[in-house]
Write a structure and sequence with these properties.
The structure is a single chain. The protein is globular, with a radius of gyration of 12 Å. 50% of the residues lie in helices and 16% in strands. The longest helix has 14 residues. The protein has 106 residues and is an alpha+beta fold. It has a single domain, classed as Ribosomal protein L30/S12 (60s Ribosomal Protein L30, Chain: A), CATH 3.30.1330.30.
């Protein structure tokens, strides 16, 4: 079954509205070091290589799942209600992370 990009963007937007999203590579890296880190980190399909490497390394070190989403940086920014570009979003709520992960499939 193909991935529905609209549903993924909507679900990520719900996470942001619920206060369960950390937006942007620097804020995600900072949140990973804190007591309640993101459970799932979503990386835009056109994220810069340096952002991808940084997040891959940090998520691996802290044992956090990193998934690439079929959204570009502009679409990801729009999904979370930000202007400009957002390379990554961290989901901090376990239930919402599970919903997003299930929408992404295997």
């Amino acid at each position: 079954m193909p991935i529905d990009v609209t549903h993924i963007a909507t679900t990520i937007g719900l996470c942001a509205k619920a206060g369960a999203a950390v937006c942007g590579t620097p804020l995600i890296c900072e949140a990973l070091r804190k007591k309640n880190p993101p459970i799932l980190v979503l990386l835009a399909q056109d994220a810069a290589k340096n952002a991808e490497k940084k997040l891959t390394d940090k998520c691996s070190f802290y044992g956090v799942e990193l998934r690439r989403v079929p959204l570009d940086t502009a679409q990801l920014a729009m999904a979370v209600g930000k202007r400009g570009l957002v390379a990554a979003v961290g989901i901090t709520n376990e239930g919402l992370a599970g919903v997003v992960s299930s929408k992404l499939g295997d």
